[in-house]
Amino acid sequence: MKYLLVLLFTLISFSNYADDYNPMDGYSKAPLSEPVFDYAKVIVDSTAFNNWLNSNYSKLDSQTMKGPREHLYYLLSSYVSELNNKDGIILPKEKDLVLSTLLSWSERLGAYGTHLFYNQVKRDKMEPMPEIMKISDGIKVSAINDMFRIESKKGNWSTTFPYYFMIGAIGEFKATNGMETQLLTISTGAVKDNTKAGRSQSTLMLAYTSSNETESFNNYWLSQLGIDSKIESKTLGVKKLESLYLYDDEALLHKEVTFLPSTNGSLLVVYLGMDGAFQKNRQHFLDFLLQIKTANKPIKQG
Length: 302
Prior knowledge:
This protein is of the alpha+beta class. The protein is 32% helix and 26% strand. The chain is built from 7 helices and 11 strands. The strands form 2 sheets. It has a 7-stranded antiparallel β-sheet, with helices on both faces. Strands 1-2-3-11 form a 4-stranded antiparallel β-sheet. Helix 2 crosses helix 4 (97-106) and helix 3 runs antiparallel to helix 4 (97-106). The longest helix has 22 residues, at 66-87. It is globular and about 50 Å long. The N and C termini lie far apart (60 Å). The model is unreliable at 1-18 and 298-302 (pLDDT under 50).
């Protein structure tokens, strides 16, 4: 029965891309080479997990959603690995029952923006999914091929990343340092790591303020992250950037932060990962930095 399901999903899932389309544009496919779950498990478990959520979703709150949300993205990352390994793509253009099943739960479990991709792969008879997780007015989220595009509506910054990365936080607020801040937190694809669980996602965080008090902004976030500003910086090899790095050997947690130049405010990117996952996903941290565009001249306010 298991292999019949695998064959069924394979038959309905895959399609060809246009010649000018570049899957996962700007991002390395290397982290996809070793999925957390094998393909047969993804197919069978996706169905079982969907049934479990249908029975238990109403009982979940913001705290108890965390475990199911993580499992959902382990399944999603593993399925994307299979798509890439088999056909060199990460998002089929045709309808895909596995992806539509997984993505149908993403926003309901607290991830942002995935309705954009669910609506691309759902069956025609299914109703389009509206935005469930609302985005702050000052930030725009859109889909370009198989990528999320996130941008400040005032044009201060923008970035892109693969749709299977999970947007865990996105918004605007006044930080405790008094600075108006735009924050984007995403989780990379899931990989095997050296923790007891044996798998995890890594975290990318982008923080921006229109304030040009860059030193104050940087020191504030370093303090929040528990990173000493006196740590010797190292060259990243990307955009002439340098980073500060710290390893917490008790928690097996790696922390890395870099500050990006901008003529219209202050911007930093943080990369966090458990031992093993940090190393495997680090190329996506570097790729993410290359996708960030900042304003090269002051932008009119208002």
